[in-house]
Amino acid sequence: MSRPTRLPEGFEAFWAVYPRRVSKGAAYKAWVSQNCEPIAAEIVKAVKKADWADEKQYIPHPSTWLNGWRWEDESVESNDNQALRDALR
Fold first, then answer.
1. Is residue 15 part of a domain?
2. Does 1 reside within a domain?
3. Are 43 and 71 in contact (CB under 8 A)?
4. Burial profile 20-33: b = 16 or more Cβ within 10 angstroms, e = fewer
């Protein structure tokens, strides 16, 4: 895949907020292969909301994160909220 002259807006927004900006080409390939552009806002929101490790070495490469559909991961906060709701029943 050759480098496009202009990257999609959604990808650029994702790249701007992702905390570990490495291997942009691989991230772009993952973005295209996972058809992320239509859900770019959801992905960017998930990146902003995620609880990232303090050390960058523990943050997955962006291509890994995209290929794993990690924006659909359940957050720790939602697990805690569910446990609280269950306890109050």
1. yes
2. no
3. yes
4. beeeeeebbebbee
Which residues, 6 or more positions from 47, have their beta carbon under 8 angstroms from its beta carbon? 14, 17, 18, 19, 71
DSSP state of 69: T
Domain coverage including residue 39: 9-88
The Cα 49–Cα 41 span in angstroms is 12
Number of folded domains in the chain? 1
| 23-50 confidence digits (pLDDT tens) | 999 999 999 999 999 999 999 999 999 9
Residue 50 lies in a domain: yes
Q: Are 31 and 60 in contact (CB under 8 A)?
A: no
What pLDDT score does 79 carry? 52
23 within domain boundaries: yes
